[in-house]
Amino acid sequence: MRKVILEVDNLVKTYKGKEVEIEALKGISFNLYAGEFVAIMGTSGSGKSTLLNVLGALDEPTSGHIRLNGVNSEDFFVEPKATDYRRENIGFIFQAYNLLKDLTVEENISLPLLLKNESKETIDRKTANMIERMGLTKWKKHRPVQLSGGQQQRIAIGRALIGDPPILLADELTGNLDANTSSEILDVLTSMKKELNQSILVVTHDSKVATYADRVLFFHDGKITNEYECSGDKDLEKIMKISQDILKGANE
Ligand SMILES: Nc1ncnc2c1ncn2[C@@H]1O[C@H](COP(=O)(O)OP(=O)(O)OP(=O)(O)O)[C@@H](O)[C@H]1O
Q1: Is 21 in the pocket of ligand 1 (CB under 6 A)?
Q2: How many domains does the structure of the chain reveal?
Q3: Shortest-distance Cα residue to atom 26 of ligand 1
Q4: Which of 11, 12, 13, 15 for a ligand 1 pocket mutation test, highest count of atoms within 8 Å of Cβ?
Q5: Which residues pair with 31 in a beta bridge?
Q6: Rounded distance, CA 108 to CA 91, Å?
Q7: pLDDT in tens, 217-230
Q8: I need a labelling partner for 218 at 20 to 30 A (CA). Which of 17, 46, 49, 123 fits?
Q9: SS3 sequence, 56-103?
Q10: Residues of the signal sequence (predicted)?
Q11: Mutate-to-test residue for ligand 1 from 18, 25, 43, 50, highest number of ligand atoms within 8 A of CB
């Protein structure tokens, strides 16, 4: 039986403004399994970023539960526990890389281990290993600005993975990259998935990204309206068709 890493159970998020309430998530439930790559696609404003924020304990849900490795989320959302939860459990990857510009490649990648107070020996060994895995050895003393977009995203992936987080959350990780570099980054991600049995959740507008996933969840109006099991590149047309249908339905 496949091991469940993340259980999302009836998640609701309501933003309360002075005049209006916006129900961004209207009861989202799904499981993420060990070593599974799930892509989330959907209409604009359908709640994808809200979901990532809640899963990353950057925002608190109005109701519902998250269980990560069997641990209930009740306490995740209150500081300082939220910071501990993020540090121990989540690797984040963003569209804009979010690297520290004054730090070198190796300093950026090693940061999560420094924050975890790991020993110098462990930090040096794990960082050198991750830099090599990401193909960045030649550039380890460079600053991010001296590197290409694809190389910067590889720094971000290395930084996200170095602390062995149970899940990786990515928001439009190829949004700033051209088609070739996007494929290269997705190849890096899928090889890490296989090597480390890494569980990955990616929010994307790009159907190509979804073809690298094992499963695609389609969001519309705060709900999961469709789910699709993938099996490689040949599914691109089908994924594009489903996402176009959802967008068409949303505009009718
Ligand atoms: N901080 C906030 N306060 C109030 N409303 C918010 C807030 N963040 C998001 N929303 C609203 O919640 C809904 C879902 O937004 P969200 O950003 O999660 O959608 P999305 O699917 O990520 O959209 P996109 O694909 O355009 O990035 C939208 O109606 C949005 O306006």
Answers
A1: no
A2: 1
A3: 44
A4: 15
A5: 7
A6: 13
A7: 999 999 999 888 87
A8: 17
A9: CCCCCCCEEEEEECCEECCCCCCCCHHHHHHHHHEEEEECCCCCCCCC
A10: none
A11: 50
Domain range for 247 is 4-251
d(CA 106, CA 110): 6
pLDDT digits (tens, 9 = 90+) for 137-182: 999 999 999 999 999 999 999 999 999 999 999 999 998 889 999 9
- How close is the Cα of 50 to the center of ligand 1, in Å? 6
Residue nearest to atom 27 of ligand 1 (CA): 44
> Which tens digit of pLDDT belongs to each residue from 54-78?
999 999 999 999 999 888 877 778 8
ipTM of the complex, rounded to two decimals: 0.98
Other CB atoms within 10 A of residue 85 CB: 21
The continuous run of DSSP H or E covering 149 comes out as: helix 149-161
What is the end-to-end Cα distance of the chain in Å, rounded?
Answer: 41
Cβ of 45 closer than 6 Å to ligand 1, yes or no, is yes
For residue 24 the two structure tokens come to 């961004």
- CATH of residue 110's domain is 3.40.50.300
